[in-house]
Design brief:
Layout lengths: L5 E9 L4 H17 L8 E5 L11 E4 L2 H8 L7 H10 L3 E7 L3 E3 L4 H4 L6 E10 H4 L6 H9 L9 E11 L3 H15 L8 H9 L4 E4 L4 E3 L4 H15 L6 H5 L12 H10 L5 H12 L7 H20 L6 H7 L13 H14 E2 L2 E2 L5
Parallel strand pairs: 1-2, 1-4, 2-3, 6-8
Antiparallel strand pairs: 4-7, 5-9, 6-7, 10-11
Protein name: Nucleotide-diphospho-sugar transferase domain-containing protein
């Protein structure tokens, strides 16, 4: 199938066989279609190595071969270089391209974002940091040192953008090639900074007019586990085959991670105040997962909260603290407020007893 150039396109990049990323993309597409208020159909394109996953969906597939994905990773094997290459390759397919990460939700009409894209007028997810705010962070030190030793001066007011959303025009090929060139240069020397792609794009956009899209799109990159749990339940209940009813059905899924009420959160904080800081964090996660209304999507997230608490125990090597030893025995520790629902408490104690073995907590996948 020939891909025709169009005035504007919403573009996704999805590759590999992981179900969670397919769910992310499909749910994001549903929110975009639901928010679209224009008379013209929204042109949505998915760059993917698995075209069959989108059969029947109102999208155009841009097939990617395995060889293309390998080439897009570059000589240094930097994983996120593929995203910059997808940006560059997609520009020829439309006058305006709105590239969005799969972990995004549309909360307004996509046309509002297309209207803000023009030659010399760019759109990103959000303006996150200034270079002066990050250059001394451990993960940035190597890059900062490399830039200094190679004579590349960076002003303190250099802005760093989150590229979860990127709005470009067909004439922005040189800008994306400049960004890819920076990725290739830096990744030859910097191996442990996974946001190189975002930094390179930020540097390529230096001095340009750049707007934010966060008032129209919610990017849940920091809460992925919660949304993965809710989306898995959604597609389990309704299936992945597209039908128009899904646009209405997707509204049942919360747009933020489920939290206890303000009263419950205040109560938990009050009762945890005498615990040490580590136990306060563990207790908060365990109890946040045990509170909240009884709805299917809240239920789906209980174990996400509980797993966060277990990871806190692992990271801080807390297995020998008295409250943790009590939880490992299936008991409720003294001084830790109990969940108000005894059935949920029973489930939590059973879950923790299974996970907290006598020789220490087992690994909990993130």
């Amino acid at each position: 199938m020939t891909i025709q150039k169009v005035p504007q396109q919403l573009l996704y990049l999805v590759y590999g066989g992981k179900e969670v990323y397919r769910h992310e993309a499909k749910f994001s597409i549903l929110t975009a279609l639901d928010q679209n208020k224009g008379a013209e159909p929204l042109v949505i394109r998915v760059m993917t190595d698995r075209p069959e996953d989108y059969h029947g969906w109102p999208v155009q597939v841009v097939p990617l071969s395995g060889q293309t994905l390998i080439e897009w990773q570059g000589d240094q094997g930097y994983y996120h270089r593929r995203k910059a290459c997808a940006f560059a390759a997609g520009l020829a397919l439309a006058d305006k391209t709105l590239f969005v990460d799969t972990d995004t939700l549309f909360e307004a009409d996509p046309q509002r974002l297309f209207d803000r894209i023009a030659p010399g007028q760019y759109l990103i997810d959000e303006d996150e940091f200034l270079w002066s705010e990050v250059r001394t962070r451990p993960e940035f030190v190597k890059l900062d040192r490399y830039l200094q030793t190679s004579g590349q001066s960076v002003s303190d007011d250099q802005r760093l953008f989150n590229s979860g959303v990127c709005g470009l025009t067909a004439g922005d090929g040189p800008l994306m090639q400049a960004s890819i060139a920076l990725i290739d240069e830096w990744s030859a020397h910097i191996k442990d900074l996974h946001t190189l792609e975002q930094i390179a794009l930020s540097f390529a956009l230096r001095g340009q007019s750049v707007g934010e899209s966060k008032n129209c799109i919610y990017h849940y990159f920091s809460d992925k586990d919660f949304f993965h749990a809710m989306q898995a339940l959604f597609f389990q209940r309704h299936g992945e085959a597209f039908r128009p009813e899904l646009l209405r059905m997707q509204r049942e899924v919360p747009r933020r991670k489920p939290l206890p009420s303000l009263f419950q959160r205040s109560r938990i904080k009050f009762y945890l105040r005498r615990q040490n800081k580590d136990m306060q964090k563990v207790g908060r996660d365990l109890l946040y997962g045990s509170c909240g209304p009884f709805s299917p999507y809240v239920e789906a997230c209980r174990h996400v909260w509980w797993d966060q608490g277990l990871r806190q125990i692992q990271r801080r090597d807390m297995g020998q603290q008295a409250p943790i030893r009590a939880l490992a025995r299936g008991e409720w520790p003294a001084g830790l407020p109990r969940p108000s629902n005894r059935d949920v408490e029973k489930r939590l104690r059973h879950y923790l007893q299974q996970q907290l073995q006598p020789h220490g907590p087992v690994h909990v996948a993130k």
